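Q: How do we represent a protein-ligand complex in a form that can be generated token by token?
A: Start from the inputs.
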Amino acid sequence: MTAQTAIAPSGRRTRRFNLEKWGWMFMRASGVLLVILIFGHLFVNLMLGEGIHALDFAFIAGKFADPWWQWWDVIMLWLALIHGANGMRTIVNDYVTHPTARKALIWALGLAAGLLIVLGTLVVFTFDPCLGVTESSTLWDMCVANGSVGN
Ligand code: HEM
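Then emit the structure tokens for the protein with protoporphyrin IX containing FE bound:
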């Protein structure tokens, strides 16, 4: 963590965390990672193999059963939400002049991003394709075979 040197009212030099500087660096670093994560995601889902025609519930269930894709998707989710929320924070700071409105909007952005990060992470790591599956589903045989339903 790099600190900024400032002069405290007491005259002492203090070292403060510079949110704007680190936010600026985070936007660039996360932007580079997001290019790889987003275009990798689009390429695998839409172009590899049968491409978009292979996209269905079972395709997603297969990806969410693989730790590689779980982590890929969770890192993409976290970075996109933090990047998007921090970008919106910059826009709010630039355009919203009323201090209370600005504070409320920045809190709302933080809460929305935090909630979506928690929910999305839970979905990716607790996803169970056999939950609520019925006999008419194409997943039925697989779910019976792995002991998730039936008997
Ligand atoms: C393809 C990957 C992406 C790249 C390379 C990228 C890159 C960047 C960079 C470098 C900035 C800083 C611009 C500045 O400070 O002037 C930025 C700002 C921003 N980004 Fe992204 N970004 C990407 C994806 C996203 C996504 C997925 C979202 C939404 C979830 C998003 C939302 C924003 C917002 C709201 C800003 C603030 C714009 C502003 O300051 O005017 N970006 N982006």
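The mean pLDDT is 91. The chain has one domain: 3-145.
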